[in-house]
Amino acid sequence: MARLTIPAQELMRSGHSACPGCGATLVMRYLLKGLGERTIVTVPACCWTVIATPFPTTALDVPMLDCAFEATGASISGLRAAADQLGLKDVTIVGFAGDGGTADIGLQALSGMLERRTDGIYLMYDNEAYMNTGVQRSGATPEGAWTTTTPVDEFSRGKLEPKKDIMAIIAAHNPPYAATVNVAFPEDFVKKVEKAKAIHGPRFFHALAPCPPGWRYSSEKTIEVARLATDTNVFPLYEIVDGVYHITRKLGVAKPVREYLQTQGRFSHLDDAEVAKIQAQVDARWKRLLALEGLA
What we know:
By secondary structure, this protein is an alpha/beta fold.
């Protein structure tokens, strides 16, 4: 019998209100498996405030606090200070926010939390748009993607701007630990969370969270889409420990980016030249990451 590498304990309940195939539900599930029950979660306005807390129910077996859209980083700092005053030193404080509430609206509070060196974890679950309010583009939406505010018509070819590099912004704050995680690789995910739990100070996770309705793919293909994101180098898996980069998944030869793009209707309008441009951008980012790791 194969050895179990993921804790069996479930701290996220069934019966939540997420869409079928929602990547963000798996992000929360694996996060809590790695952290355990001595955890307090703070969540701003996002999909997860709807998924977890339709009155009078909850989908979590740990305490969860709703905070203002822009305030996740400040909420982590406040909860950490309160827990310390109460002598709850063994409790992990976690902020769980979407890409809009992190890379855009909440960036100032996140920066403040990192600068203050708050002993807590911030996780950005990245579904690459404001999905809860109707699939509007965020700073984390990739270039070329269709959203309701970057339509594809005679005047537009989707989002014109590149995806914001949140990990570079985090790295500039020199936290003791930061990492990317992907729901298609749960062993890597949980291992990194367990590692981060043992570290003190501000820690950050960038979690890929595919969204079937927003990305326009069939709900049973979430893991397939997520796996392709990493195996094409669109979303590499790596960690930064005290400034040192380590890539945690490498293929001998990455799959073509086209294979990833073709799984999603939000990219179906792209022509060969646009796909080639995205491939070149992905290749350049991968080369930069290899250089940061010291292998280039």
